[in-house]
Write a structure and sequence with these properties.
Largest sheet: 7 strands, mixed
Strand order of the largest sheet: 10-22-21-20-11-18-19
Structural class: alpha+beta
Oligomer: single chain
CATH topology of one domain: Calcium-transporting ATPase, cytoplasmic domain N
Helix content: 40-55%
Number of strands: 22
Number of helices: 26
Radius of gyration: 33 Å
Strand content: 15-25%
CATH class of one domain: Alpha Beta
CATH architecture of one domain: 3-Layer(aba) Sandwich
C-alpha cells in the first residue's frame, strides 16, 4: 500500500508524453482565462494554476506559475518604491506640516511634490489603473475601480492646484492610499500562492512507457505509441499503462486511487483493468481497449476540470462593498459639486469639496480589512495542519449544512488491521496461531497479509520461518511451518472442503475473516477490518452539535457501510457508489438545497471534491485529491474537519466586522466632507486621522482571530 502514495515520483516526470502535453495544453488554456492582470482581488480564479517545472511539455502551465510569482514580486517592488517616495511627499505637504507643526518650503517645492507624486501615481498606481479597465470591460466594477477613481481624482485635482487652480493639494492622500492598497494586495496574493497541480498529478499517474509484446519479443515503447488492440506485459508492482482486458495471468490490482475500493481487487483472464492502477505481485498480459482521451483517467481529468471551473465564479465580499462605495463616491461627489455650484459658490470651492468627498469615500481600511484576516487565518490554519488553497471556499465553510465523508482512508485508517484472532485448537495458544499465520503471510503482498504480519510483530515474538510457500489461487496461501502443513484460507475454501465455520467467527459485518488450517484441521481464525479512526466519532458529534448533517459515501459494500455509519452515529450513507456516481450524489444533495462539504482522499473523490462547495482532502490520501480540494488536512484527523468549519465561521465573522469598521468611518466622514452640515466642514487633516484610526482598528481586530483558533483546536 505504501508506495501508492508516492506515485508522482514516476518517470512521467522525465518524458512528457503526448497525453501529458495534451492535458497541459488544455490546462494552459483553462488557466489563461480569468486572469485579471494587476488585480488579484479574486485569487480563486487561478484555482487551477499549475506549475509544470518538471515537464518539458508544459510551457503554458509553467509560464502561468511563473506569472503568478512575478506578479507577487511586482506588487512588492511597487510597494517599497512607493513607500520610499511617500516620505518626502508627506514632508512637503502643507497640510501635514500644519498638522505636525513644522515648516519646510523652498523655491519650486510644489513642482518637486508634483514630480514625486506623479511617479507614485503612475508607477505605484499602475495595477489599479489597469485593474479599472479590466473591471469596466468585465462590467463588474469592484475594488480596483474604487481605488482607481479615488487616486485619479486626487491626482488630477492636485496637479491642477500646482498649476494655478485655487485650493489645497491632496498628494499626501494619493500617496498613502496607493501604499496601503499595494500592501493589502501583496499580503493577499502571498496568502493564496498555493498553486493547483491537480490535473498534472493525474497525468503523472500514468507510466511513461509500456512493455509491448511483439511476437516472442517484449519491446519498451512510449505510451503514445500504444494503440487499441496492442498486447502489453505488466510486471509485478508496475502501473497499468492503459485500460484493457487481461488475456493471460492473474493478480491483485490496487485501484484504490481510482475507484476507492479499499481492498485490492483480484483480476484474472477476461477481467478489465484501468490505466493508472497498480499491479500486485504477479505478471499480467493485457489487450489494450482505450488509450488517450477515451481512458477512464482522462474522463476523471475532464470531470475535475469542469467542476473546478464552475467554482471560480464566486464573488468576493470586499469587492461587493467596493462596488457600492464606488457608486456612492461618484454620486456623492457629483452631487456635492452640482449643489455647491447651484448655491452660487465659486468653482474652486465646489471642486475641492467634491474631491474631498471622493477621496474620503475610498477606504484605506477596506483594502486591508480582508487581506489581513486572510493572511492571519491562512497562517494560523497552516500551523494547525489545515492548508487553505481556495479562500472563497474556506470563507464559505460557514454555510455548510451537510458534510459528506468518503469512508476508506477518511473515517477509517484505509488499511486492514487485525480486530480479533482466536485459536480453535486446544493445543495451540492464540498467539502461536497468529505467529504461524504470520510466518506464512510474510511472503505475500496482500493487505490482509500485511495486517496479520503487523499484528504478529506487535507481539514482540519471533515469527518462525516458512518453507515451500505456495499460493492457492484465489483461496489463500500454504506453506510448511515448524514441520506442520499450514494454510491460511478464505471462508470459501472451508465450504468447498466441507469444513465447519465456527459460529464465533463472524460477529461484525464490517470484518473480513480468514481461517488457519494446521494439517488440514481448523486451528483458528483471524478477523480483520479497515479500522475506524478514533477521532471520527468526535468529529461527527461536533458537527452534529453544530447542526451539520453527516453522510458517508463509499465504494465499499452495503454491509460495511451500514456498520460504520451506525457506529459513528451518522445521518446516513450511500454504499457501493461508483466513482463517477460520487459526483452525481453531491449534485443530488445540492439540488435538494444542501450546502455541501466533501472530505475524501482518493483520485475517485477528485471530481466530487471539486463539485462540492467546500472540498476537503485528507492528508494520508493521494496527491490528486489534495490538489483538487479547497482545503487540505495535513494530519488525517477527521476532528480537523469540524475545527475547520468552526474556524471558517470565526474568520468570516472577523471579515464582516472589519468591513463594518472600514466602511463605518466613511459613513461618518462622508456627510461632513460635503460641507453641507452647518458649521462642520471636515478638513482633510481630520479625515486623515479617521482614516489611519480605522486602519489600525481593522489590523488589531484581525489579530483577535488567534484567540478564536485556540478555542477550536
Amino acid at each position: 500500500m505504501e508506495n501508492t502514495h508516492h506515485h508522482h515520483h514516476s518517470s512521467a516526470k522525465d518524458t512528457a508524453t503526448e497525453k501529458t502535453n495534451e492535458i497541459k495544453k488544455e490546462l494552459a488554456e483553462t488557466t489563461a482565462h480569468g486572469h485579471e492582470e494587476g488585480t488579484h482581488q479574486r485569487p480563486h480564479t487561478k484555482e487551477h494554476e499549475s506549475h509544470a517545472e518538471h515537464h518539458p511539455g508544459g510551457h503554458g502551465a509553467h509560464g502561468h506559475h511563473d506569472h503568478h510569482a512575478m506578479m507577487i514580486n511586482d506588487f512588492k517592488k511597487r510597494f517599497w518604491l512607493s513607500l520610499v517616495l511617500t516620505v518626502p511627499v508627506l514632508a512637503l505637504s502643507h497640510m501635514i506640516q500644519q498638522w505636525l507643526g513644522f515648516e519646510l518650503s523652498f523655491a519650486g517645492d510644489t513642482y518637486v511634490l508634483f514630480g514625486l507624486s506623479s511617479l507614485i501615481f503612475f508607477y505605484g498606481g499602475w495595477p489599479f489603473l489597469t485593474g479599472l479597465i479590466e473591471e469596466i470591460k468585465a462590467r463588474n466594477p469592484g475594488m480596483m475601480t474604487l481605488i482607481a477613481v479615488a487616486i485619479t481624482v486626487a491626482y488630477v485635482y492636485s496637479s491642477a492646484v500646482v498649476f494655478g487652480l485655487e485650493g489645497m493639494d491632496f498628494f499626501w492622500e494619493l500617496a498613502t492610499l496607493i501604499v496601503v492598497m499595494l500592501l493589502g494586495h501583496w499580503i493577499e496574493m502571498k496568502s493564496v500562492k498555493g498553486a493547483s497541480r491537480a490535473l498534472e498529478l493525474l497525468v503523472e499517474m500514468m507510466p511513461a512507457e509500456a512493455h509491448k509484446i511483439q511476437g516472442e519479443a517484449v519491446v519498451d515503447v512510449k505510451l503514445e505509441e500504444v494503440n487499441k488492440g496492442d498486447r502489453l506485459l505488466i510486471k509485478p508492482g508496475e502501473k497499468v499503462p492503459a485500460d484493457g482486458v487481461i488475456i493471460e495471468g492473474e493478480s491483485h490490482l490496487n485501484e484504490a486511487m481510482l475507484t476507492g475500493e479499499s481492498r485490492p481487487v483480484r483480476k484474472a483472464k477476461g477481467d478489465k483493468v484501468i490505466g493508472g492502477s497498480l499491479n500486485g505481485n504477479q505478471s499480467l498480459k493485457i489487450r489494450v481497449e482505450n488509450t488517450g482521451k477515451d481512458s477512464y483517467l482522462s474522463k476523471v481529468i475532464t470531470l475535475v476540470q469542469e467542476a473546478q471551473e464552475k467554482k471560480s465564479k464566486t464573488q468576493h465580499l470586499a469587492d461587493r462593498a467596493a462596488f457600492w462605495l464606488t457608486i456612492i463616491a461618484i454620486t456623492a461627489g457629483l452631487g456635492t459639486l452640482i449643489t455647491w455650484l447651484a448655491l452660487g459658490r465659486e468653482m474652486a470651492y465646489a471642486v475641492e469639496r467634491m474631491v474631498t468627498v471622493m477621496v474620503i469615500t475610498c477606504p484605506h481600511a477596506l483594502g486591508l480589512a480582508i487581506p489581513l484576516v486572510v493572511a492571519i487565518s491562512t497562517a494560523l490554519s497552516a500551523k494547525q495542519g489545515l492548508l487553505i488553497r481556495n479562500r472563497t471556499a474556506f470563507e464559505n465553510a460557514r454555510k455548510v449544512t451537510t458534510l459528506v465523508f468518503d469512508k476508506t482512508g477518511t473515517l477509517t485508517q484505509g488499511e486492514f488491521g487485525v480486530s480479533r484472532f482466536e485459536s480453535t485448537d486446544t493445543t495451540l495458544s492464540k498467539e502461536d496461531m497468529l505467529l504461524m499465520a504470520a510466518a506464512l503471510e510474510q511472503h505475500s503482498e496482500h493487505p490482509i497479509a500485511t495486517g496479520i504480519v503487523r499484528q504478529a510483530k506487535a507481539l514482540k515474538k519471533n515469527i518462525p520461518p516458512a518453507h515451500h510457500f505456495k499460493a492457492l489461487t484465489g483461496k489463500g496461501v500454504e506453506a510448511e511451518v515448524e514441520g506442520k502443513q499450514l494454510k491460511v484460507v478464505s471462508p470459501g475454501y472451508l465450504k468447498e472442503n466441507h469444513l465447519e465455520i465456527p459460529e464465533t467467527a463472524y460477529t461484525d459485518e464490517a470484518e473480513t475473516v480468514v481461517f488457519v488450517l494446521v494439517n488440514d484441521q481448523l486451528a483458528g481464525y483471524i478477523a480483520l477490518a479497515d479500522e475506524i479512526r478514533e477521532q471520527s466519532l468526535e468529529a461527527v458529534k461536533t458537527l452534529r452539535d453544530h447542526g451539520i448533517k453527516t453522510l458517508m459515501l463509499t465504494g465499499d459494500h452495503e454491509k460495511v457501510a451500514s456498520v460504520v455509519s451506525k457506529k459513528l452515529g451518522m445521518n446516513g450513507y450511500f454504499a457501493e457508489v461508483l466513482p463517477d456516481q460520487k459526483l452525481d450524489k453531491i449534485k443530488e444533495l445540492q439540488k435538494q438545497g444542501e450546502y455541501v462539504a466533501m472530505a475524501g482522499d482518493g483520485v475517485n473523490d477528485a471530481p466530487a471534491l471539486a463539485q462540492a462547495e467546500v472540498g476537503i482532502a485528507v492528508g494520508s490520501g493521494t496527491d490528486i485529491a489534495a490538489e483538487t480540494a479547497d482545503v487540505v488536512l495535513v494530519n488525517s484527523n477527521p476532528k480537523d474537519i469540524a475545527a475547520l468549519i468552526l474556524f471558517g465561521r470565526a474568520t468570516y465573522r472577523k471579515m464582516i466586522q472589519n468591513l463594518i469598521w472600514a466602511t463605518a468611518y466613511n459613513a461618518i466622514t462622508l456627510p461632513l466632507a460635503t460641507g453641507f452640515i452647518a458649521g462642520w466642514v471636515i478638513s482633510p487633516a481630520v479625515g486623515a486621522v479617521f482614516m489611519s484610526l480605522s486602519t489600525v482598528i481593522v489590523a488589531i481586530n484581525a489579530q483577535l482571530l488567534r484567540k478564536s483558533m485556540k478555542q477550536h483546536s
